[in-house]
Write a structure and sequence with these properties.
phosphoenolpyruvate-glycerone phosphotransferase activity (chains A, B); DhaK_1 (chains A, B); DhaK_dom (chains A, B); Rossmann fold; 23% strand; 2 domains; Hypothetical Protein Tm841, Chain: A,domain 3; 332 residues; Dihydroxyacetone kinase subunit DhaK (chains A, B); 6-stranded mixed beta sheet; homodimer; alpha/beta
């Protein structure tokens, strides 16, 4: 294993110290493992909090800032954060208007966020929780009962972050989070396995001419192991999986993310985006907004995920609202 | 070789088509291989153009937009663009106020941009050229006479792009480009080699426990082959190389970029940034602004480059000016 780290045990602490050094606009509690906006809560605004295992950066810390998250709780690499982190984050950012927890559907994350919600209610903080479960590849997997939560998390955090910024109440914000999740589907393909620092070796074996189709963001198995093919053919498989699960009609508008899993060159992501655009254009489906880059990664895994959200006018308007985070920034 | 491509020959065309599909705010000439801002030249504004071999994305196409480049000319992967591309770009974006070519110091790039400048002058377009040569690792290398141009290109393009936006004339803009280059130093370390699509195999062999210290952005050899060490030790070597070449005094202000070479997880880049910040803090040198992420990549190479610019007040003010490109965006 070759990594730019000091020790496997210190990766998260060292990275959080680096985030604190690089981003003075954030309040980073290295010991307590909470990344929040500096300046505390804004009266009347619903606070939006997310979190999960580290190793998926920029998710979630890179999305903390005006127009998106109020705080993020990073666990150890590929390990759920503990309830104390979410409780501490909730206490730090709640203005009295309540807190939305955005939780990717992994068993550990669900349980720990649920416990945190109970602890927060004990302290008179109102909490709503939304589960993100957009990955159509498998139902029930190594780490999850039901579908895994992956790329749609970015869409939920952006759109709901904008809505909360506009002053919507907790019920309205939670409702929109569910709408965005329900409208989004993801599918991923891995070209290589990733290596978690504590494991010291790749999470699975993948021969030199094969890809894992439907892979999860921790290297969980997908639907099938297949020979590497052209980008066009790989995208066709992914889009078939997405559109089988959520058909799109001519004239519908979408937000599309072509997301690198960590070790994929950007030039390849644009090759993939071109194929995605061709598939949707052939169905007269419009890509109204898009992201191409590394947003939800799996450490050093090579591969790509594709997320398609069937977007209504409200979602597009909230998507366009100003956002000012380290990983997503426009209009601000 | 496993890559998300159709054929090695079509990578650039397919990626350019993807860029065009993802970024309607750009005018992408796929056939002519020019990425320009949509909307044509703005009267009185100096046009800023850069370019070079592909495989370093988001450099340069990701930096085209208000506040930064007017156009970028991508060559084939790791291959200089041809003079016709720069000429075509110059004709498309020159407003009559002249054109600045920002050229990384590689022999092919120098020669082709020089020829393009002569062709442009024949068409009554005034051209100034600035060479970027910030990499302190080696003097004269496989691809270069003199120092290689790497990370500082981002600083030059951002700062000079802002100055041109403010209406400065060509001489002033070119002068600032030289100042930023002269104030900047870079040094890189590779953990793995990269694989160019046309080559089909890694550009060099690197054992499982070794790193290439002082590597170039095409995998050119550096100063030494060493055993992998802690991030702290690796950063100490890099910073020694940077500060030997350009000592920094207590109280001085810098812009620092910790840049992933393509396959490095963002969490590791923050670990590295933390160590860089510690080295500079120990010298009472201020990191006034910073970037942490993938800005000048080498396809799927794992590794990091560190760029430090000794920044004066003008540079910091121009750094803060609005920029609106796919890879760098703030205040807009």
């Amino acid at each position: 294993m070759k990594k730019l780290i000091n020790t496997p045990e210190s990766v998260l602490d060292d990275a959080l110290a680096g985030i604190a050094a690089a981003h003075p606009e954030l309040a980073v509690d290295v010991e307590g493992r909470v990344i929040a906006r500096a300046g505390g809560p804004r009266p009347g605004k619903v606070a939006v909090i997310s979190g999960g295992g580290s190793g998926h950066e920029p998710l979630h810390g890179g999305f903390v800032g005006p127009g998106m998250l109020n705080a993020a709780c990073p666990g150890e690499v590929f390990t759920s954060p503990v309830p104390d982190q979410m409780l501490s984050a909730a206490k730090a950012v709640d203005s009295g208007a309540g807190v939305l927890f955005i939780v990717k559907n992994y068993t550990g994350d669900r349980l720990n966020f649920q416990m945190a919600a109970e602890l927060a209610e004990d302290e008179d903080i109102t909490v709503e929780t939304v589960l993100v479960d957009d990955d159509v590849a498998v139902r029930d997997s190594t780490w999850t009962a039901g579908r895994r939560g992956t790329g749609a998390t970015v869409f939920v955090e952006k759109i709901v972050g904008a809505l909360a910024e506009q002053g919507a109440d907790l019920t309205t914000v939670a409702e929109m989070a569910k709408r965005v999740n329900a409208a989004s589907r993801s599918f991923a393909v891995a070209l290589t396995a990733c290596t978690a620092p504590a494991a010291g070796k790749p999470g699975f074996d993948l021969p030199d001419d094969e890809i894992e189709v439907g892979v999860g963001i921790h290297g969980e198995p997908g639907r099938s192991r297949e020979k590497i093919r052209s980008a066009k053919d790989i995208v066709a498989s992914c889009m078939d999986a997405l559109l089988d699960d959520q058909p799109l009609a001519a004239g519908e508008e979408t937000i599309v993310m072509v997301n690198g899993l960590g070790a994929t060159p950007l030039i390849e992501l644009y090759v993939v985006f071109n194929e995605v655009a061709a598939v949707l254009a052939a169905k007269d489906v419009t890509i109204a907004r898009s992201l191409v880059g590394n947003y939800v990664t799996s450490l050093d895994m090579a591969g790509v995920s594709i997320t398609v959200c069937r977007a209504d006018a409200d979602m597009l308007s909230l998507w366009d609202a100003p956002v000012n985070t380290s990983a997503l920034r426009w209009g601000a």
